[in-house]
Amino acid sequence: MPNDSSPSRQFPPLPQFSGMNAPSRIECHIKDLEVVGELPQALQGTWYRCGPDPQYPPMLGDDIYINGDGAVSAFSFADGRVDFTMRYVRTQRFEAERAAHRSLFGLYRNPYTDHASVRGLDRGTANTTAFVHAGRLFALKEDSLPYELDPVTLETKGRHDFDGKLRSRTVTAHPKRDPETGEWLFFGYEAAGDASKDVAFCVADKHGALVREEWFEAPYAAMQHDFAVTRDYVIFSVFPTVCDLDHMKAGGTHWMWDGTLDTWIGVMRRDGSVKDMRWFRRPACYSYHVGNAFNTGSQITIDLCVSARNVFPYVPARDGSAHDPEANAPYLTRWSFDADSPESSFTSRVLSPIPGELPRIDDRVSMHPHRFIYYGGIDPRKSQLMAGPIGPGSNHLVRVDTQTGGVTALFLSNTTTFQEPQLVPVPGAEGLLLAVVDHHDTGLASVVVLNAADITAGPIAQIKLPIRLRDAFHGDWAPLTPKTI
Ligand SMILES: [Fe+2]
Fold first, then answer.
1. 204: which of 107, 184, 253, 399 fits an S-S bond (Cβ 3.0–4.6 Å)?
2. Ligand 1 center to 357 CA (angstroms)
3. How far is the centre of ligand 1, averaged over its atoms, from the C-alpha of 359 (Å)?
4. What is the pLDDT of residues 255-279, one digit of tens each?
5. 289 C-alpha vs ligand 1 centroid, how far in Å?
6. CA 254 → CA 193, 198, 239, 314, 328, distances in Å?
């Protein structure tokens, strides 16, 4: 429980605050980054990214990786050159702590542990995803409303509630942009507040106006980090990482793993209603991220990373069982459903032998059949360097050809890890793959530019940064570079 004594001005010597995970707290604009090789002319646009970077040492002396303040960055590419900008999102929380010169918020998603002076303030950190829609840039965090940023300067414009229309208190950090309609499909879980079972399914049209918000109840209050959308269906997943209000009020964590509960998968038609939701079930498992989903008639395919339980080591098990990283490693997996089947079961098939997470596709085929998936592989036989929320960072970049089953992987060195890849579309080609590389030996970052069709050939070009970039979670590619900063 908090007290009024000032917290330490030093970050604790813990893995989540050390090495590549050490808070950078840097806001900057760097013109013309150093480039080794030649940047392809096809790179014309901006790669926005978002991740947690704690402004102050934790009030309670310890904290988890994902509770840091949102820092949004942009690599702006034009004519063989690249600029870099990074800014904190000025959330209510950030501003309150900056004014007090210290941290004031306690445990992750537990307002009962906050300093009395910030009661009632928005706890959102806007630290998970940078997302561009209708020419506007947003920073998203699943427990709160989006913040809108200026796409050029990254200055914060304010909280975004769709002109006061959105009733949900939360918006997922895994938005789905329909490449055909331009719609932004999203949901909010714990939509009515902490531990509520309420889920809001929402759609904003291609101009950004909220045109749909329907609420339903999940089988139990659970973390719903991502969801899936196809041309005709929306799929919600409820995995047993659960929230217990009494536990929170007693100063406990927001989340606990309860492996006695089933996984529930809700399927509804996009032209239907949440009232028509069909629930499929299987024993407890976990998934943070969906690569893509598509349907052929009533046959639905979802490619996602699945683990035996929650992969975050700081989600304690309700039964006290220890977290086993190897047994709980996530694998890229294909789930197949028949939406019209009278059965509540579905099939599951692992697509790659290399464990890992952060699957991405060419977003132009989002919601439609895709061929390639790229993700960060964590091969336990190679160096395990701490970077990011799970513990070890991705020591490989992996490409899966879902048509042939072929798996290729790029390994750079024993001192490097990769952050989430980004596919940049190139007409008539598979595209370019970008990824931030953490250099654990020098404490600096670079960006590799790869031919997505042949990632094992190594970088076409490498962009060198004079700073370290703390692991960002998710990004978005906008094909236009805003006029200069
Ligand atoms: Fe995520």
1. 184
2. 10
3. 10
4. 999 999 999 999 999 999 999 999 9
5. 6
6. 12, 16, 15, 11, 20
